[in-house]
Amino acid sequence: MPNRLIEIFEDSGLIEKIQRRLPHLFQLAELESSRAGKIGMEVGSVREKIITALLIHKFGESNVETGIPITEAEVDVKLFGQPISIKTITGESFNGVKLIWTVDAQKAEEFRKIYYPSCDMLFIQINWDKSGGLYYFPLSVQKRTFDRIGRQNYIKLPKTGTNPRGAEITREALETLATDSGSKKIVINWRKTQIDFNPYKRWVDLWREN
Questions:
Q1: Under a CB-based contact definition with an 8 Å cutoff, are residues 121 and 4 in contact?
Q2: What is the pTM of this model?
C-alpha cells in the first residue's frame, strides 16, 4: 500500500497552514525546551509531537499509531500501519541528523554494517530568518540513494576519541534525497514572532485546581 503521506503535499489548504503555523509551533517548542537561553536536546521530542499532531489533524487519531516501542530505533509513528521516521535539523547545512543515538562507538560501527532504510521519512529543515522546508523522502528514494552512493557515503560515524552520540546520515545523502525527483517539499520561511511565553504557567494553573 502506498504511503498516504503524499496527500499532505497535495493539499493546498494544508500546505498553506503548514507554511503559516509550523514556524510558530517550532518556536514554541524551542521556548518550552530552553533554560537560561540554551535549547535542550528534548526539543527534538517536542518537534516530533508537533509533526505527529499534524498527521492526526490530517488523517484522524484512529489512523495514527503513536505508541511505538523505544526499541524501534528508526520508527517514530505509524500512519495507517505504515512506519514513518521523523527527523529535524536546524541550520542551512544538512549536517548532524542522527540515524541512531548511542554513546557506544562500537554499537555505532555495528549499526553502519547492518543498516538499510526501512521506512518513509519526514524531514524538517529549520532555518530561522531564512527558508527551509518540510520534506517527504519515500522509502524507495532512500533505498535508491543508499544503493547508489554506498554505505560508507550514506552513514557517518563519529571521530575516534570524541563523544559519539550516534551514527549520522551524511550531508551528501541528505542533499541527494532532498533533490531527488521522487521526494516532495513544502518550502517554509522560518520567521520568529514575539511570543509571551511562561514555561511554568500551565503547571501553576494545575496546582491551583482543587
A1: no
A2: 0.91
